[in-house]
Amino acid sequence: SMKFLWLDDLRPPPVGDTWIWAQTNEEAIATLDNVDVISFDHDLGLHDLEPETTFVTFKEIERRWYEEGIKPPSMTVHSQNPVGKMNLLIAIMRLNQVVRDKVVIGL
To answer: pTM (2 decimals)?
Structure first.
């Protein structure tokens, strides 16, 4: 069955599908081998001295593709930060295009 990862430091995952809830990039990255779908928040730990964004997790997904050939999971963004959401969506679309081109065209 499909495994869903919800990356958000504050909001709990939706009821229904069995979401794994990661509240940090470290927790999310630790689950990457076992998930089919990821939903990203953008801002993590705004209350911390050094807030992070979930681009840390995205960059690890990207690295795994380029360096290890591990196909990315399906990715979506539920963040309410409009600029952060757009930046993540653009990055996701770019990576998906690269993966599609390699798989379909054999680039």
So the answer is: 0.91
